[in-house]
Specification:
Blueprint (H helix, E strand, L loop, with lengths): L1 H21 L3 H28 L1
């Protein structure tokens, strides 16, 4: 499951960078940044739980 989340994070980050570089979809870029941050925080929480329980 963590591999899928990291894959989504990487794809969103790349799309976000492309949007910034080429000035595409101004508001959407900020939404993508928020989604990336939420996924990273979620991933860190899941990793901490797995280490504590395992």
């Amino acid at each position: 499951m963590l591999g899928i989340i990291w894959g989504i994070i990487v794809v969103l980050f790349i799309v976000w960078l492309i949007g910034i570089i080429f000035h595409i979809a101004g508001g959407l870029i900020n939404i993508l940044l928020v989604v990336i941050l939420i996924l990273i925080i979620w991933n860190l929480i899941q990793s901490a739980r797995n280490k504590r329980n395992g």
